[in-house]
Write a structure and sequence with these properties.
Layout (H helix, E strand, L loop, with lengths): L1 H24 L3 H25 L3 H28 L11
Helix pairs in contact: 1-2, 2-3
């Protein structure tokens, strides 16, 4: 059963790398924010899988919940910041 969770974690890391590409390259600020939020959400699941693999679910669930709340608050704050600057949907110059 641990092999299944390890394989799932490795697939999740591969998906996180694809999302990282969108967070770096994304043509708009909104694409970058969604990429960062996707990485944060996948990190929460990865922390819970790590807790199961290390047989310390109670500790890793607490860390995952705290990280999830921090990720949510950060993305909302960044979205409001860029909305007030009127730069949320604008494409960068030169494209």
């Amino acid at each position: 059963m641990d092999q299944f969770f390890l394989t799932t974690a490795l697939i999740l890391i591969a998906l996180m790398l694809m999302t990282l590409y969108r967070a770096i390259v994304g043509p708009t600020v909104l694409d970058r924010l969604l990429g960062v939020n996707g990485i944060g959400s996948k990190t929460v699941v990865l922390l819970i899988l790590a807790g199961h693999l290390f047989h310390r679910e109670e500790m890793f669930v607490d860390i995952a919940l705290a990280y999830g709340m921090l990720n949510f608050i950060t993305v909302i704050a960044a979205a409001r910041f860029f909305q007030k600057r009127k730069g949320l949907n604008l494409e960068p110059d030169g494209q």
